[in-house]
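Researcher: Please generate the 3D structure of the following complex. Treat every line as part of one assembly.
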Amino acid sequence: MSERAAKVTPADEEEQDDDQITDSAAPDAAQEIDAESETTPAPVTSGAEAVVRALENAGVEHAFGVQGGAIMPVYDALYDSDIYHVTMAHEQGAAHAADAYGIVSGKPGICLATSGPGATNLVTGLADADMDSDPMVALTGQVPTELVGNDAFQETDTTGVTTPVTKDNTFSSDSDTVGSDVSEAFALAGEGRPGPTLVDLPKDVTNGETDREPDAPSVPETYEVQERADEEIVAAAAERIENSNKPVMLLGGGVIKGEASEACREFAVEHEIPVITTMPGIGAFPEDHELSLEMAGMHGTGYANMAITHCDTLIGIGTRFDDRLTGGIETFAPDAELIHVDIDPAEISKNIHADYPLIGDAATVVEQLTAAVDESPEATKWRAQCQQWKSDYSMAYDAPEDEPLQPEFVVEALDEATDDDTIVTTGVGQHQMWACQYWTYTEPRTWVSSHGLGTMGYGLPAAIGARIAADDDQDVVCFDGDGSFLMTLQGLSVAVRENLDITVAVLNNEYIGMVRQWQDAFFEGRHSASDYHWMPEFDKLAEAFGAAGFRIDDYDEVADTIEEALSYDGPSVIDVHIDPEANVFPMVPSGGDNGQFALTEDQL
Amino acid sequence: MKRGLEGPPPEDRPTPAGRRNKQGIRIDPEVEATHEPRRTVISALVAHEPGVLSDVSGLFSRRQFNIESLTVGPTKDEDRARITVVVEEPDPGIDQIKKQLRKLVPVISVRELEPDAMQRELALIKVDAEDPAQVSAVADMYDATTVDSSPETATFEITGARQKIEAAIDTFGQFGIREISRTGTTALARGTEETAAAVNATESTATEANHDKPYQTANDD
Ligand SMILES: Cc1ncc(C[n+]2csc(CCOP(=O)(O)OP(=O)(O)O)c2C)c(N)n1
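Model: Done. Output below.
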């Protein structure tokens, strides 16, 4: 088999015999190619087949979606493909699963939906991927071209609706080019700053005849990405680093997407520069390393927020300076000169003015910086100061046995019971913050959460996508809130059908807790619509779906139940009844000064 | 009330002396310098394909850029259209507009025109024509062409820079203006300079964003 062409797809390997049968009927040119490789698949005959061929050519192995009238031709073509399609219970879940798949695998995740409601159900997932720059391709069915614009059954102006929440989208209008449209969308999703792309597929276009094979994935001519930063600015930035006394590296999600974690680690360790991450940057640097100050921002650690406020040189890599990170602009790193590395020129000086703008691929630019910096900064005092802050503002918490179960304890217990490469997904709320703060992340692509959009309900479908992308021996744990879980828990049916080994820990406080926390702090404790005392029993609900259900009420149940849930081969749900009044600290109120984080409620 | 974490409270922590302004630029808090909005013309060469105008206008509305006028039309190359946008923003906002426009896949190149670029707008002005002689005297003053007249009204076409059109509208005001329709500004760079060329689009993006040129001060045309 070694003489096979490089382009072997899984489909070809298994359907070799079928191919040979087809070969005898194929035209001469095709026969010649086949004689060499025996792997050329049957020529495409329809737009839908071209769509699927484009995905196969791009190396796609999995897709997530829901059937429907307008997308049926594509699903019909998928029937003959070796792409493994995971049927989801809701299109929002398909989008989140594809998003998480993209984060974990580093290749664009694929989701499919029909026209109208199918497409609009994808919108939240698209917006989420767009905010977090996650590579993803959405393929939506559309009513036949002649009905477009007529308010036909299940018609929505999908490209119109999704323009603000996609990196790029296309209405496909020709069976001959529809395959190439999909190839291009795939290339665009992953190239440069990644993001979600969408191809809208009218039914007549996918049903239409064509023998045109799709072009190889490539981005349009007008889309060019700068890989290397300007050497002059690199040199100036290097000089700044050498002369700084209080340097800090701030690693964002772009470090992970740009596969720059290794280069950043080496740079930080070589020059002994303390490292902070943003929330999407979690995993870019090992949190158990001495130089790590973990995450800064609204619920970042006190030490990270002190360091970012007092540094004199901030090396920001692959971060967009979101307001949850910066707090009020006025007081953000006010004494620091900013060296900003980003592949997207529009991020430079968007929120925080960059004194040294370095446009380029994170890994490449960090290598440029590595080559340019000759001397390490003189920062012994600064490092000692950072260590002092680490002990002053340590993330230690009280967990008295006779009081209600504290959520931090549960997060730490699960962390201890699992390996370092375990993937964590979350919903949005307090539980998400505890999962950031009290789990020790050491590897990139193990933290999968909704950062920029903050989408409740992200956790379970993301765990499904992550599970499918992950290695078999990697654990997948989802921390969810009761409110968040309730938003997309129909995905449990998918996890059961596919027998996906995931463990969901619902940190159940019978509140939409983060809202309750804000109401306590800023609305005089008026719990308007945040009290969720009507929550179902999630362990029983899990069992109703066919998953394993567990419940924890007390400290002494934690270790054993976690052990049982983790060892269950399939989806399990632990309904963890935590202290309903537990709140997340430290906290920088929105627009506040990072250095003035509150450690207790009365400091707000 | 729940207890929180340990550590020195906010009032016991040192705070740095520096400050940034709203645009994230470090400033001397003693001499606060904010950027005043200025009016400028941005020209974008785009692929002449369906949806590109809504991509561009959607970008402006969702990022809340203050747009004064937007015109679009074909170019000598039938696959390309030119979009001319007049905006009023502080310098950092103008930079953002250019960078965000360049990010759109169908956008080929984007340039901010120099203040001396040729800028023209067309307006149709319909006035009461009770005093035809005086009306036509004003029309002459602004090189306006009569495009329609009736016993009660006269409609003029006038082209020129925005200030000229505004001055004309002011002066016509004395007769009573019934209706106005304006096209918004279209513009080209002077001489051999190219307005927004297809070549070296990325190179210019990179150099512009990379080179930290000092921001200009407010400057109205
Ligand atoms: C789809 C969606 N709707 C509303 C919100 C606003 N929101 C942010 S956090 C939060 C509470 C989340 O509650 P829960 O999932 O129970 O988690 P907890 O905070 O209790 O851990 C809400 C309602 C959101 N982020 N996403």
